[in-house]
Amino acid sequence: MRPFTYTPTSTVPAATQKLKANPNAKYLAGGTNLLDLMKEDVEKPTELIDITRLALTEVKTIITGVNKGGITIGALGKNTDTANHPLIRQNFPLLTQSILAGASAQIRNMASNGGNLNQRTRCPYFYETSMPCNKREPGTGCGALEGINRMHAIFGWSEACVAVHPSDMCVALAALDAVVKVQGADGKERSIPFTDYHRLPGDSPQKDNNLNPGELITSIEIPKNNFANTSYYLKVRDRASYAFALISVAAGVELEGTRIKQAKIALGGVAHKPWRALEAEKFLVGKEATEANFKQAAELEMKSAKPLEHNEFKIELGKRAITRALMQAMTGGKA
């Protein structure tokens, strides 16, 4: 690990000003991903700005504004505390399930909510500094494009990068239409719809999200919904614990009688960002909540997938995972 300066801070304005003053600095919260990357010489900050003392841990009901009746969760709340908070378990079990599907208990006890959004890909070519990687060093090429790409993207990838976003929590937040609240060094606050927060790789895969320089995530807002009891998070992976998703599905269905009033579906492990399954959602509106309709929705969604050499299996896997997640959602995951 390279030498760096450690700078504690206790207010949001102080933190954003310090980051603005040093473009080579990084915020330090849980550190569960950043410190690993520093040890591997992938991340090379000259300064770590410790933000763990900031008062950004609260989970509470939103009482005013467009998201009234929803929940806001602090950016520095721990993943475990968020997953097990009564307001989250009662109103957004989809989020609880997704968080508890990620990493290990020890990591979830340290990892922060904001850090979960900003964790970087686990593409092995990104971590291996002897290999080309446009995300790690722009202009060097993509080792995974012609390499072993079994875990990689089937949607939204570019010739510059085929890596996928690793988070489980973010897949649920995408399906829940969450909003990311950020504050910049100028003191201005900004709201970013969750589906706009992360980026597809395009020609700039080194940019994971649409944060402006110096901006700090302060909270995440989740609007109220009507599918707490008809939602489910399904994660398909190579082993039952401490493995990233081959494909994951966050599914929520709101019913009107026996027909579907609205469906919210997001996929993980398939793109550079949580992938909103808009084709499937559109098809399901007004349909009966049957396995046959769920299968047809999955077929439609996976039609536009573009597999790489080693991950064509993800197309069939995706169809089955979407169908199964929707079926499980109808029973709240109890079947």
UniProtKB/TrEMBL annotation:
One of its GO terms (molecular function) is oxidoreductase activity. PROSITE patterns: FAD_PCMH. Signal peptide: none annotated. Pfam families: CO_deh_flav_C (PF03450), FAD_binding_5 (PF00941). SMART domains: CO_deh_flav_C (SM01092). It comes from the Bacteria. Keywords: FAD, Flavoprotein. Residues 1-227 form the FAD-binding PCMH-type domain. InterPro entries: CO_DH_flav_C (IPR005107), CO_DH_flav_C_dom_sf (IPR036683), Diverse_Substr_Oxidored (IPR051312), FAD-bd_PCMH (IPR016166), FAD-bd_PCMH-like_sf (IPR036318), FAD-bd_PCMH_sub1 (IPR016167), FAD-bd_PCMH_sub2 (IPR016169), Mopterin_DH_FAD-bd (IPR002346). Gene3D superfamilies: 3.30.465.10, CO dehydrogenase flavoprotein, C-terminal domain (3.30.390.50), Uridine Diphospho-n-acetylenolpyruvylglucosamine Reductase, domain 2 (3.30.43.10). This is Xanthine dehydrogenase family protein subunit M. It comes from Rhodocytophaga rosea. The lineage of its organism: Bacteria, Pseudomonadati, Bacteroidota, Cytophagia, Cytophagales.
